């Protein structure tokens, strides 16, 4: 599925639409350049799950946890991780076992640790500054 958005609000709305189809244990694996809109899409996921907290990038904390929605949301930033081994060191399996949604930015850094059924979300810049081309593969919308 390919979606073209023309503002951060539309990118968030695309995330909210996907959230409606997520189930406990869903993993969203993001790829895309710095500033492409991965966190904006994740804000939409959170909104779609009913999370009311402010969603921010977990760049320095590795993972931010958001409770209170239909499902918990665990927002990971793997930019600073060098391997899948480091992912397991931070408790990846524990997060998966908690029955929430794991949204993983920079998933290419830990690709060998992700299950084949992860939902892949690639976000690329479009023709103008705010335009994004979002390609979603795998998961419940297929």
Largest sheet: 7 strands, mixed
Q: What topology, given as strand order, has the largest sheet?
A: 1-7-6-2-5-4-3
Q: Tell how many strands the DSSP assignment holds.
A: 7
Question: How much helix is in the residues?
Answer: 25-40%
CA radius of gyration is: 14 Å
Task: Quickly give the structural class.
Answer: alpha/beta
User: What order do the SSEs take from the amino end to the carboxyl end, as H and E?
Assistant: EHEHEEHHEEE
Question: Stretches where pLDDT falls below 50 for ≥5 residues?
Answer: none
**Euclidean distance between termini CA atoms:** 8 Å
Q: What overall form do the CA principal axes indicate?
A: globular
**Helix segment count?**
4
GO molecular function: ATP binding; metal ion binding
Main location: cytoplasm
Keywords: ATP-binding, Cytoplasm, Magnesium, Metal-binding, Nucleotide-binding, tRNA processing
InterPro entries: P-loop_NTPase, T6A_TsaE
Q: What topology does this entry show?
A:
Elements: E1 2-5, H1 8-19, E2 27-31, H2 38-49, E3 63-66, E4 73-77, H3 84-89, H4 92-97, E5 101-105, E6 119-125, E7 132-137
Parallel strand pairs: 2-5, 2-6, 4-5
Antiparallel strand pairs: 1-7, 3-4, 6-7
Family: Belongs to the TsaE family.
GO molecular function: ATP binding; metal ion binding
Keywords: ATP-binding, Cytoplasm, Magnesium, Metal-binding, Nucleotide-binding, tRNA processing
